[in-house]
User: Which sequence fits this backbone?
C-alpha cells in the first residue's frame, strides 16, 4: 500500500492485487489494534533493533527513516503520538485510521486496487542478449550479468488473467497469522525463479517450557524481572534482558519473551539443541546480600508465623508454592524452624527460577516470520532481484526482522520506499 502511494505520487500508473476482500488485514491487528507504525528512537539506534540482516537495511532506512514515516503519515492527515519506548501510534489508537489514510491517498492518486485478486505466479521473459550486455557495467559482478537473462513483465492471477507492467513488487508478507492473508506466496514466487529463500520459522512468539509447575502459574504476569536464556552452539550465547513477561498454560509469553524468541529461534530450530536452559531473576533490583537481608527482616518480624505467610510480601500468590517447593521448604512450617541452608535455597529459587525452553509457538501466534527471500539475492539500494530484472521484494517477505516496538512496520515502509524510488528512477 505504501509502495503504491510512493509510486503514484511520482506519476506512475499502479495496480495493486490483494487476495483478501479488503486491504490491510494484518495492519488492522498490529499493536493490539492500535498500530505501532514505527519507533521514534534515534536514527543511529534504529538498526540495533533489527535482528536479522540489519546491514542490508542501512541504505533503505537512510532513504526513508522513522522520522520520514511519521512525517509521511502526518502529511496524509493522520495525527500521531509517541508513547513509552518511543512507540509511535495514531492519536486515535485505531489501526483502522492508518489503513484509512493510506487507502484515501491511494484512491486520490489513482491507484487501481484489485481485491479478491490472488496472484499465483510471475511472468518472466528472457532478455535478448543485446539488452543483457547493455545492462551490464564492466565492474559489476556475475549476478548482474545473470540479471539480464530474465525480465519480469507481469503477474498471473488465479482466474487465469494476466497483468503486464514495467516492474513488479512482491509485498506478500511472511507466514505469521495466515488468516490475514500472509501464507508465504512470495517465497514460492522467488523459488520458481531460483531466487534463494532462507529457512523460515515463527518469531516474536511465545516459548514452550518443560517444567510441570508452569501450568500452575498460568495467567501470572511479572514486571521488572530479568529473563536469561543460554543458546547458540553449546549454549555459549546468552539472552538476558529486563522487563515484563507472563506465564501461559504451556510456557511463557509477554514482551520480554517475544524478544527472547527472536534471539534464540535459530538455536531451537537447529537439530543440535532441542532444549535451552533459562532462568528468571524475580528480584533483579536487589543484590544477593540485599535479598538475604530483606528475607531476614521479614522472618524476624514474623518468627512464629508460617513461612508461606511471611513471604507473601515478597512474591505473588501463585509463585509462592512453586518457589517453596523448589527450595524444599514446607509452606506451613513456622519461620523459626527454617534453617540457614533452606533460606539460601529460597534466595536461589528467587534469583534463579529455573525454566527449560523446549519449543516455540506456531505461526498462528507469531508476530513475524524469521527467514525469507535471501538478501544476498537482492540489491540493498533498490530491493530489486539481482537475477530477475524488474522484480522487487519488500517488507516481511524478505529475510529481515526486528524486535517489537514498531520496527517491523518501519522495515516495510523503508523497503517500499527504496523499491518505489528505484522504479521511478529507472
Ligand atoms: C498480531 C500482530 C501484531 C503486530 N504488531 C506490529 C506492530 O504494532 N508494529 C510493527 O511494526 N509490526 C507489527 N507486526 C508485524 C507487521 O504487521 C508486519 O511485519 C507487516 O505487516 C509486514 O508488512 P508486509 O506488507 O510485508 O506484509 P503484510 O502486512 O502481511 O501484507 C501482505 C499482504 O499481501 C497479501 N497477499 C499475500 N499473498 C498474496 C497473493 N498471492 N496475491 C495477492 N495478495 C497476496 C495478503 O493478503 C496481505 O494483505 C505485527 C504482526 C502481528 C501478526
Assistant:
Amino acid at each position: 500500500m505504501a509502495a503504491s502511494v510512493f509510486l503514484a505520487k511520482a506519476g506512475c500508473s499502479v495496480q495493486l492485487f490483494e487476495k483478501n476482500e479488503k486491504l490491510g488485514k494484518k495492519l488492522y491487528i498490529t499493536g493490539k489494534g492500535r498500530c505501532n507504525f514505527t519507533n521514534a528512537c534515534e536514527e543511529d539506534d534504529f538498526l540495533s533493533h533489527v535482528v536479522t540482516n540489519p546491514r542490508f537495511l542501512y541504505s533503505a532506512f537512510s532513504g526513508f527513516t522513522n522520522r520520514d514515516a511519521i512525517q509521511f503519515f502526518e502529511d496524509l492527515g493522520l495525527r500521531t503520538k509517541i508513547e513509552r519506548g518511543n512507540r509511535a501510534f495514531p492519536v486515535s489508537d485505531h489501526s483502522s485510521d492508518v489503513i484509512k489514510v493510506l487507502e484515501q491517498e491511494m484512491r486520490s492518486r489513482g491507484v487501481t486496487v484489485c481485491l479478491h485478486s490472488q496472484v499465483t505466479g510471475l511472468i518472466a521473459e528472457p532478455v535478448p542478449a543485446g539488452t543483457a550486455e547493455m545492462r551490464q557495467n564492466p565492474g559489476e559482478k556475475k549476478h548482474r550479468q545473470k540479471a539480464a537473462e530474465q525480465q519480469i513483465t507481469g503477474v498471473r492471477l488465479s482466474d487465469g488473467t494476466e497483468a503486464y507492467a514495467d516492474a513488479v513488487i512482491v509485498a506478500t508478507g511472511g507466514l505469521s497469522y495466515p488468516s490475514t492473508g500472509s501464507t508465504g506466496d512470495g517465497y514460492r514466487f522467488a523459488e520458481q525463479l531460483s531466487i534463494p529463500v532462507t529457512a523460515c520459522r515463527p518469531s516474536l512468539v511465545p516459548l514452550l517450557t518443560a517444567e510441570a509447575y508452569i501450568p500452575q502459574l498460568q495467567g501470572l504476569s511479572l514486571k521488572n524481572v530479568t529473563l536469561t536464556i543460554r543458546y547458540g552452539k553449546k549454549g555459549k550465547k546468552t539472552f538476558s534482558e529486563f522487563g515484563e513477561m507472563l506465564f501461559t498454560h504451556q510456557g511463557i509469553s509477554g514482551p520480554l519473551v517475544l524478544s527472547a524468541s527472536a534471539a534464540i529461534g535459530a538455536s531451537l530450530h537447529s537439530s543440535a539443541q532441542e532444549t535451552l536452559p533459562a532462568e528468571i531473576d524475580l528480584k533483579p533490583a536487589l543484590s544477593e546480600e540485599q535479598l538475604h537481608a530483606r528475607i531476614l527482616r521479614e522472618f524476624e518480624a514474623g518468627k512464629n508465623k508460617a513461612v508461606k505467610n511471611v513471604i507473601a510480601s515478597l512474591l505473588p500468590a501463585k509463585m509462592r508454592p512453586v518457589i517453596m517447593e523448589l527450595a524444599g521448604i514446607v509452606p506451613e512450617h513456622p519461620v523459626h524452624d527454617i534453617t540457614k541452608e533452606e533460606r539460601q535455597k529460597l534466595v536461589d529459587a528467587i534469583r534463579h527460577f529455573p525454566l527449560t525452553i523446549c519449543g516455540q509457538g506456531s505461526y498462528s501466534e507469531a508476530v513475524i516470520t524469521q527467514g525469507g527471500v535471501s538478501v544476498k539475492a537482492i540489491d540493498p539500494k533498490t530491493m530489486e532481484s539481482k537475477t530477475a530484472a524488474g522484480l522487487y521484494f519488500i517488507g516481511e517477505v524478505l529475510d529481515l526482522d526486528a524486535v517489537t516496538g514498531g520496527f517491523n512496520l518501519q522495515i516495510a515502509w523503508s523497503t517500499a520506499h527504496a523499491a518505489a524510488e528505484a522504479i521511478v528512477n529507472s
